[in-house]
Each structure stands twice: as structure tokens, then as C-alpha cells.
Amino acid sequence: MKRKLLTACLAAVLALALGGCAEETAQQHQGTVDAVPDKGLEVMGNHVTYDPNHLVNGGQPVTLDWWLWDAPDLFGQMADAYMEIHPNVTINIINNPWDGFWTKLPLALQKGEKGPTLFNVHNSYQHLLLTYMAPYDIDPEEMQEDFFTASSHLIDGKIYYTDFGVMTGAIYYNKEMWEAAGLTEADIPKTWDEFREVAKKLTIVEDGRMVQAGFNYNGDFQNLMLGVPYQFGGTIFEDDMKTASFTSEGMLKTAQMLKDMYRVDGIGSEDFGTDAAQSFGQGQSAMVYRWGHFYGYMNTNYPDIEYGTFEIPAVTENPFAYDRYNGEATPGINKNASPAQLEAAQDFIRFYLANEEIQKELCMYYSLFPANNALRDDPEMLKNPAIAAVSEHIEDYIWPGPMPSTLEDNMKIAAQDIMYNDKDIEKTLKTAEDIVNVDLANIDFTSAENLYDKYGREE
Q1: What is the DSSP secondary structure assignment for residue 120, as one 8-state letter?
Q2: Residue 376, Cβ neighbours under 10 Å: how many?
Q3: How far apart are CA 69 and CA 105, in angstroms?
Q4: Ramachandran category for residue 241: left, alpha or beta (phi over 0 → left; psi -120 to 50 → alpha)
Q5: Which H or E run contains 167?
Q6: Which residues in 216-245 are b (16+ Cβ under 10 Å) and which e?
Q7: pLDDT confidence of residue 444
Q8: Bridge partners of 332?
Q9: What are the backbone angles phi and psi of residue 140, rounded to the nearest 5°?
């Protein structure tokens, strides 16, 4: 009976129209005194559990501001679900634009109880936020049992935030072009050699002019360069986890392979538009490599294109890692908040982590593979092609840590020099490596590659 009551409560709240304003919804709660500890609700969760049958802050009113930069209605529904259980807690959703968010937030976190108690985290800004964050009051071992990426967020034995879902790359292919080339599902390639042969069949050249690219990576060269080299057994960073390595064997082989796909195989061209995503949507390219947000892009801009997905090919049957991933993070807690706010924030985080329905909503919204192990086989989620493509080997993807933007920025410049200016691969990557390492020397950064399960282990 208790589970039915809780499910009904959450379902009613999560069914709120997305058109409603999250801030207005939160403000409907006036912080009434809660004198009912036993809510008649069942404990949620597996290893990280949440028992709703208790008072928060002794039932006395307490207000939390929650800063974020996206999806205020969706996150507001979560706050509403919590406030339905604990009516003495008011959670105000404060939606700030991304531009300026990372300048304003560190300053606001210094204001104690007048600043945000909760705030959404992007791991690339961990270096700015960690000094203001309180660790979760949850056993890290319990979190690692429930969330397969939690171990990569351990800092001195504590976890300050983790992932509710992860995003990575996959191959998207045009089903109509696939069929026209005489290909079937049996032809979905597992290796890069197989992939290149399939791409040749999908390439169409008329009167010496390419009219259909078998594979288009224009605009994504740098993304492939920061993921595929892991397949060769190397890493982006040296053993010190602070020095970038752009001239490893894996990097050089990946760059040469990509260049050969265009120059030797003729399955694409750097002159075939600058945006592979747009080319795919316009029916000009048969295959592209994109990350999970491409699902939303296609639904919004090119809903009539019928496409499928498959996992990125590998150089060997069991690579060190298929690719890198990036996680979408759970909220941080401001350590400078008042004791009452900290108690409520810690309680909310436990509610958040134990609530599978909330995490499912988030992962489906962002096309993320769920970090919560209990959701990985959810049939509804696996209908999403971005999620389904990586479901088989998701634990064989690596998080390099909150990578500073200098890596992607300088790899993109290197990619342009290699493809458009025909510069020497090794010299170009060495130049990019030198620039990146000068930048890294001036910031407090440590890669998380050595927290990957296979790191340092001989295959």
C-alpha cells in the first residue's frame, strides 16, 4: 500500500504540464509546518535508499534556492515531488542562462544561506566549484553499488556529485540509403575495417563529383580524435594524469585512419560541407558519428529522416575502451548554507538518488544512458536509438575527467590543419599538445582516467 501511495504521489506531480513555470510552482509552497513524520510511504531505492517517513528540519519551514541553467520545468517537477512529501520545505528554482552562469555561481555560493543551497554541476567546471561543495552524506560504497560511474567521482574517499546519466558517441545511419545499397542489419560493422567497406558501398560519385558521402565526420574530427585512440590501449593523459599526450601511437593511428577514409577510400570529403549533422539531416551523408543529443536534433530539425544507430566500431574485439563519455551531473550542495538548509539539501539529494522515476525522466529528456544500474534494461529507455546503441558495452567507455576546454579547442585546430592544410600529422599534434600542456600547467586539473576499471591492467 505504501508503494502505491508514493507512486501515485510522484505520478501526479510529474504529470504537471511542462508549460507551467517551475518557479511559480515552487512558490506555491509557503513553508507550512509539517507535524506528520509517518507519511504512509514506502522506502525507495536499492542500496542508496530514501525513507520519506520522517520530518526534515524538525518539520519547521526552510527554504532552498536551486540554481540551474536548463530545463527549469523538469527540475521543478522534481522539487514539487519532494515538497509534496515535505510541505515545510520550499525549493525555489532559479534558472540562469549558461552565459554568465559560471561567473555568477561561485560568487553566489559565498553568500551562505542567502545564496543557492543546491546548484546544478557541469563537470568541466568542477575546478571552480569544489571548494564550495559539501560532500554527500551517503556511503560512497552504496552509491557505487547503484551507479556504475560513481567511482570515477571519488575525491579523497568522498563524493560531491555523480552522474545520473552518461552520453557518448555512436554511428547514425540513413536506413533508406542503407537499403538502397543492398545492406541489411547483418552488415552492421563491428570493426573499422568492416566499417570502411560498408561506407564504400554507401558512397555515390557522379561525373567525378560526390553526391552522397558514405561517412561524413566534418565538424567531428576532433571528437573522434579524443575518443577512438582509447581503442588502441593508450590514454589522453600521461601517468601523472596532468600532462596531455596527443602524439601517442593511438592518436597517430586514429588521425591517419580518418584521413585515409577520405583520401584513400574516398568515402567522404572535407569539401562536402562543414557540418556532418546538417548533411545527414538533408539526406546527403549516409553515416555520421554523433553524441546522444543528436537524437533531439534530428527530431526537431529532420523528423522525416528514418535512421538507425550502432555502436562505434573498434580496432579489436575487446578494446581498452570503445570511446570516452561525459556525464550529466547530480546537484551540488553549498557547504556555506545554514545547518537547516544543509539538512534539507542532503535529504533531497538522497531522495533524488533513490528515485528511479526521476532519473528515468531526466535520461529520456537528455537521451542519456542511465547511470543507475536498475534502469539499464528499461525497455522504454532502450527505444531511444542514442541509448540503445551503447547499451551492450557501456562499462567499456571511459571518462577522462572534467576535461578543460583547451583540449577540444586545440584538437579542433589540429584537425583543420591536418584535413584542410594537409600538414604533417605528428608535427601538428605535437604543436597542439605543447599548447594544451602550457594551458594545463596554469590550472588545477587531474584526469580521472586512472579510475577506469581497466586502467593499468594488462588484457
Answers
A1: -
A2: 16
A3: 11
A4: left
A5: strand 163-174
A6: bbbbbbbbbbbbbbbbbbbbbbeeebeebb
A7: 83
A8: 119
A9: -55, -30
What's the CA gap between 259 and 276, in Å, rounded? 16
- Secondary structure percentages of the chain, helix, strand, coil, to 5: 45, 15, 40
> How do residues 344-384 score in pLDDT, each as one tens digit?
999 999 999 999 999 999 999 999 999 999 999 999 999 99
User: For strand 49-50 and strand 89-95, is the pairing parallel, antiparallel, or unpaired?
Assistant: unpaired
Report the 10 Å Cβ neighbour count for 98. 9
pLDDT of residue 457: 61
Compute CA distances 177 → 132, 189, 454, whole Å: 52, 16, 38
Tens of pLDDT, residue by residue over 317-336, are 899 999 999 999 999 999 99
Average pLDDT over residues 259-264: 96
Q: Which of 318, 311, 308 is nearest to 168 (CA)?
A: 311
* 233 and 443 Cβ atoms separated by less than 8 Å: no
pLDDT of 458 above 70: no
Q: Which letter does DSSP use for residue 330 in this model? A: P
